[in-house]
Amino acid sequence: MTNVNSQKPPMWFLVISIIALIWNLLGVFAYIGQSMMTDEVLEQLPKAEQEMYANLPSWYIGAFAIAVFAGAIGSLALVIRKKWAFHVLLISLIAALVQMYYLVFVLKMANAMTPMIVIVGMALVWLANHATKKGWIS
Question: What is the rounded CA–CA span in Å between residue 85 and residue 77?
Fold first, then answer.
């Protein structure tokens, strides 16, 4: 069913939504790669990284999974113009903030991707909210 109040979004909205979906799918692949890492692969890592992976708390792993899967689903919702994208992307952002807290303040492992992940998450939440207000998604 089509909402009669919806406006056609500008082309840049679709382009950004597709880029966001690709970005979040890369996160999904990173999560899957980390969660399916074999003992043989782990043994090839430096000892410090082996210990880090062995000691990751389950809440961190859960936050990682929620962040990337909710981000991918929320980005797909933007592509197909669904306003529930806002709520799913907000969940993704909150999970990413939990994940980044552990990386930055507990493991002290911040790098260039750390703020970038949070900034992209915030931008996508803003975009979903903006698109809803403009009537681009319903």
Answer: 5
Whether the CB-CB separation of 94 and 70 falls below 8 Å is answered with: no
For CA atoms 121, 125, 126, 132, the dihedral sign is positive
Spatial separation of the C-alpha atoms in residues 107 and 76, rounded to whole Å = 32
Mean pLDDT by 10 residues, the chain (138 residues): 70 98 98 93 90 92 98 99 98 97 88 90 98 96
- In whole angstroms, what is the distance from residue 33 CA to residue 13 CA? 30
Give domain limits for the chain.
Answer: 11-134
* Cβ contact 111:117 at 8 Å: no
pTM: 0.90
